[in-house]
# Entry
Amino acid sequence: MASTPADTLKQAGLRRTPTRVAALTRVEEQGRPLTHAELLADSALAGVDAITLYRTLATLEGARLAHRVVGLDGVWRYCAQPRDAAGCPANHVHFWCSACGAMACLLDQPMPRVSVPAGVQVHARYFLVHGRCAACAS
# Structure
């Protein structure tokens, strides 16, 4: 049986508040990074104020259930943190359209190898590819 967002929150040791459940549900269902404004406009989050949503997203980020990605436009977007076969947070590539601002998670793309200095602790790796999406390119 598939795990629900409420189950995921419980497994992460977080309280299952309606706002957390709704925000995690939306970022998991969309399959693409969502802006704060897109989440605020979602009917499932009706009545949630902007500050509460920012705090909720920060909590989900801290628990590694979601992550923030920034396009070259400087806008923060949030997407669900995919898991590998062992259930560990998986790194992935994002695509950002510089024409329309659309962003997508490219889960099937391998992450490039990057060497980091000795002693550095890496918590996650994200890679942003930018260009024009198929709709804008035509």
